[in-house]
Design brief:
Length: 359
């Protein structure tokens, strides 16, 4: 059976930066707490919709693969912050980037979305249902941030990352992959007021709530187990893993997972400092950075692992091909903005307060 291999990669990190010091000015928090508890120093806040970031990252990935947008036959956007419920963010992204021959769908497995999307893409390529899949992770989590809840507002950021997947011709590609969900834990990380249960509520009250310590505990266990299983299923041992690219939720979670797996820190890719938790976008952004900075080389065994609301988790062991340089670049960018991250955040907070009638 044929398997999918990564032939293109790209990212979109919005220009507006929101630092820990910015947050100190508007809520009861401080840089020291955020840095020591999470590893985050700053995050990006987008002035666009999710599909705009998806389109920019997607065009970069298509160019890196040496393809044209029309070559893509399947577009999957992993997101839990789509522009709208209907149509999918993938549909909007398709029209924005010109992937006119692609069938489109969104995947929502929260922060595990990229791995779930990878599983779907791999399956479609294996069965011949698709041969050039664009998989994008794109999130506008700033929409959900409520500065009145310091336990979550400091954690998240916006961004998008993308990969192109095509049938492997050598021994590269998706070697093994596993997914899991525990619906009993659904309430420990949830965005309420946004779906059928909230019809008529005009979405005025939605906000993100989370039992952080409980998420932490489950994340470390499930990520460690899923990643270890993916390595074994790929017929490899831990020493064969060249780099672990985990979902970037918290450096302490990443460190604990690596320790549990007995992986040395130099084999773990961490970029949370500059982006915060970008949910489904974090792995493809990190992968793109790792490739662009030559942190991973030809034929590298890369281990992806993620967890997220649901509670969902997944891991994938992927061998890169011999080509780890982009065949082309795209000059598609987000529209310019002069707004700062803090201004964008406060605009949304003012709107939230107005709707709640508390301004
Ligand atoms: C959220 C998280 C960073 C909190 O860290 P923690 O060490 O568990 O901290 P706690 O929740 O126990 O809170 C410790 C104290 O810090 C305070 N605190 C919480 N957020 C704070 C903030 N932004 N600034 C300052 N203090 C804060 C709490 O109020 C608490 O104070 P108290 O002891 O006086 O009650 C951590 O639990 C975590 O990362 N969980 C996983 C979350 C995650 O990854 N979610 C995404 C899933 S994809």
């Amino acid at each position: 059976m044929r398997r999918a291999t990564i032939t293109g990669w790209g990212k979109c990190t919005p220009p507006a930066v929101l630092t820990n010091h910015d947050l100190e000015g508007v809520m009861d928090t401080n840089d020291e707490w955020i840095t020591t508890r999470t590893g985050i120093k700053e995050r990006r806040i987008t002035h666009t919709e999710t599909s705009d970031m998806a389109a920019v990252a997607g065009r970069q990935a298509i160019a890196a693969a040496g393809l044209e947008p029309e070559d893509i036959d399947m577009l999957i956007v992993a997101t839990c912050t789509p522009d709208r419920i209907i149509p999918s963010a993938a549909s909007y992204a398709q029209s924005k980037m010109g992937t006119t021959n692609a069938a489109c769908l969104d995947v929502n497995a929260a922060c595990s979305g990229f791995i779930y999307g990878l599983s779907i893409a791999n399956g479609m390529i294996a069965t011949g249902a698709a041969s050039k899949v664009l998989l994008v992770g794109a999130e506008k989590l700033s929409t959900l941030l409520d500065i009145e809840d310091r336990t979550t507002a400091v954690l998240f950021g916006d961004g998008a990352g993308a990969v192109v997947l095509e049938p492997a011709t050598g021994d590269d590609g998706v070697l093994a992959l596993n997914l899991g969900t525990d619906g009993k834990l659904a309430e420990i990380l949830t965005v309420s007021g946004f779906g059928t249960e909230a019809l008529g509520d005009t979405m005025s009250q939605y906000s993100l709530t989370m039992d952080g310590p409980e998420v932490f505990r489950n994340a470390v266990t499930q990520m460690g187990e899923a990643a270890t299983r993916a390595v074994a299923d790929a017929g490899l041992v831990l020493d064969d893993v060249d780099v672990l690219i985990p979902h970037q939720a918290n450096t302490r979670i990443i460190d604990a997972t690596a320790r549990r797996m007995k992986l040395p820190p130099e084999k773990v890719y961490v970029n949370i400092t500059g982006y915060g938790n970008t949910s489904a976008a974090s792995i493809p952004i990190a992968l793109t950075e790792a490739l662009e900075s030559e942190r991973v080389g030809p034929g590298a065994n890369v281990l992806f692992v993620a967890f997220g609301g649901g509670l969902t988790w997944g891991a994938a062991c992927v061998r890169l091909g011999e080509r780890v340089t982009a065949l082309g670049t795209s000059d598609v960018r987000l529209p310019e903005t002069t707004a700062t991250g803090l201004e964008l955040l406060m605009e949304r907070q003012d709107e939230r307060r107005r709707r709640r009638g508390t301004s």
